[in-house]
Amino acid sequence: MELVAMNNNNKQIKALLLKPEVGTLLAIVVLSLFLTVTTTSFLTVGNLIFVARGFSFIAIAAMGVCFVIITGGIDLSIGSVMGLCGVLAAYLSGLGLNPFLVLFTSLGVGFGIGLLNGALIAKIGLAPFIVTLGMLSIGRGFVYVITQGWPLQTFVPSLLFLGQGFFLGLPMPVWIMIIILIIIHMVLKYSTFGWYVYSIGGNEEAARLSGVRVERIKMLAYALCGLLAGFSGILLTARLGVGEATAGMQYELNVIAAAVIGGVSLSGGKGSAISALFGAALMGILRNGLVLHGVSAFWQQVVIGTVIILAVLMDKLRIMYFEKN
Amino acid sequence: MKVKQVIVFLLVLCIAGAVFAQGAQEEDDGIVRIVAISKTLDNPAFQVGEQGAVDRANELGNVEVEWTAPSAADPVEMVEMIESYVHRGNVDGLLVNSLGPAVDSAINYAMSRGIPVVMWDSDAPNSDRLTYVGADNYEGGYEAGKLYAEAVEGQGKQYVAILTGVPGAFNLQQRSQGFLDALDDLNVDYEHVVTVAGNDDLSESVEAVESTLRGNDQINGFFFNGPWPLLVDPSNLPVMVERIENDELTVVSFDTLEDQLRYVVDDLVIGLVGQKYYGWGYQGVTVLHEIIENDAEYPEFVNTGVDLVTKDGGPGRFSVDEFYQFWEDFSFEEEPILP
User: Fold this and answer.
1) pLDDT at residue A318, rounded to an integer
2) For a 10 Å CB count at each end of chain B, is N or C smaller?
3) What domains are defined for chain B?
4) How far apart, in whole angstroms, are the C-alpha atoms of residue A194 and residue B29?
5) pLDDT tens, residue by residue, B213-225
């Protein structure tokens, strides 16, 4: 009896450990423990709240890019879309528009750019890498067109609150990140759309043959990615209170890295919203830890890059180990 | 069972760590710890600034300087760094080279937590920072304009182009404005044809200069409001070099970095105007130390002045040979600016 129970128990543990999120979570726990023991300031409410706010922007965009990466695609325009939507929100605020209009217009632009990416990729069959690379440039170009290089410093107060405000002791971007996490988790896990996204990533042809409207699903995946990148950019701009031409520059790399570190597979078909969030959290905590430890800025980049590779390597080893046993 | 044990172990470790952390509150050891945050690490001017900061710290004796920068020139990362330093504790003051108004909120946060912030090189005028240590960029541009006016005296109408870095950077715009105002004040007959941007990138800047000259034969003056094209070998700038050698073009540039000096030696550039890089760190530490230790009060702007370098030097100017020597043995010098 006891043997059977233990066997069952082991199976459950094994299943749990096979989840990619768990590996990242373990890395977060180990790193946090290390920082708790070695610094006086890591485990303070103040520090943790700021770290969480710091990575929330990356996490929101990373959850968006999950849709695209799970279908087997990639979106390099994220950083530019973040910059464009943020700057647009600041610009429209400056025109004195109603905050809802500002928010929804800017979000609409993010969604629209994503939809355009998706249409070019899914309908016409262009390579995602090059389409979104082009969009990276177009988006950044529009940022310069709007700002003329000047920082835009007007922002509707209610939008500022989204970036700078606190609710029940937590920064608003962190709340928004949590809400988005729940929504995306539900969508990916329990909706037919979510199921289609995974099936396209698993085997696009098989999905098509079994009646999935692949083109539509892919377009929607890119559009959602653009929407969330845009939202993240608006929050980031609101948090700083300034729409700057360089905002979000090269963030696509951090965002994609966060998703992949968390366990979203670049070859498609695997990943979840929580894994993207964990990936972003790991990077955020690492950055904070390097500063708390006074690591030389020259070495910080080396350490961050090493951790990215280690995280992915550990994941691979873990899966190989469990598959062998 | 094992999993439970591991979890319990981790929890105990967490609590032990927290207790340890509380117990290990820093003691006052009489050392003033200053963290200097630069825009980037890859700029030789900032390295001279670091040297100035370290030299001044050694002179003062009880000062420690930690020199750092975000991995990319990203204001968001700078904000997070500042916040992390505030939370780390054990930081008595911050010297910040701002990446733009986006950093203001973090500066205000540090100030609100009782950590004095002094700006250097790039100011944050709308933040709560105590003061700014650096050159007046407008004045620097104005000096460059005076050099230009002197060089083109009696040469007829000037068609002037300006090369800038990332469009909109406030300090660069001030330099351009100062340059053009000097031309106005000195009654130079000129037309400002175009301002082109090289986005702080060497090859983009070279390309911007060369294409601008190739596309417009009329241009006979160029002001670089940063050093970019002059950091590469002149062979990368064939059109510019040819036009200068044919006496069809006059170039004056901001900054006085070592690599730029050869252009002065070779008569390609009439003069350089640069901030006192060494002074950023030297005076930054001086000012912050005075504020921390003696509650000193400084005006909004502590002017470190500018250096002028021409081939032969002269009153108020350095010759190119003198300046080479400074770079050679880092023998830049400053007198501490006391309140």
Assistant:
1) 73
2) N
3) 30-135+276-304 (3.40.50.2300), 137-274 (3.40.50.2300)
4) 59
5) 999 999 999 999 9
Q: Which residue of A has its CA nearest to B166?
A: A149
Question: Can you tell me the distance from the alpha carbon of A82 to that of A104, in angstroms, rounded to the nearest whole number?
Answer: 14
Output the average pLDDT for chain A: 89
Which of A13, A37, A296 is opposite residue B17, by nearest beta carbon?
A: A37
Which phi and psi angles does B274 have, rounded to 5°?
Answer: -135, 155
Parallel, antiparallel, or unpaired: how do β-strands A170-171 and A166-167 relate? antiparallel
- How many CB atoms sit inside 10 A of residue B311's CB? 17
Minimal Cα–Cα distance from B87 to chain A, Å? 6
Contact check, Cβ <8 Å, B102/A13 = no
Q: How far apart are the CA of A177 and the nearest CA of chain B, in angstroms?
A: 18
**CA-CA-CA-CA torsion for B179, B184, B185, B189, nearest 10 degrees?**
120
CATH number among 3.30.470, 1.10.287, 1.20.140, 1.10.3470, domain A25-324: 1.10.3470
Summarised one tens digit per residue, pLDDT across range B103-154 is: 999 999 999 999 999 999 888 999 999 999 998 999 999 999 999 999 999 8
Spell out which residues of chain A touch residue B100, defining contact as CB-CB under 8 Å. 151, 242, 244, 246
Sign of the Cα torsion B200, B203, B207, B210 reads positive
Write the pLDDT tens digit of every residue in A191-237.
999 999 999 999 999 999 999 999 999 999 999 999 999 999 999 99
Q: B221 - beta bridge partners?
A: B160, B250
Task: Give the global pTM.
Answer: 0.77
Contact flag A37-B20 (C-beta cutoff 8 Å) = yes
User: End-to-end CA distance of chain A, in Å?
Assistant: 23
pLDDT value of position B24 = 46
Give yes or no for residue B23 having a pLDDT over 50.
no
B298, B130 contact by CB (below 8 A)? yes
Beta-strand pair B117-120/B63-68: unpaired
pLDDT < 50 regions, chain A: 1
Residue B9, min C-alpha distance to chain A (Å): 11
**pLDDT at res. A3:** 55
In DSSP notation, A156-213 reads -HHHHHHHH-EETTEEHHHHHHHHHHHHHHHHHHHSHHHHHHHHHHH-HHHHHHTT--
Cβ under 8 Å to B: A residues 34-53: 36-37, 39-44, 46-47, 50
Residue of higher predicted confidence among B237 and B3: B237
SS3 A83: helix
How confident is the model at residue B1, as a pLDDT?
42
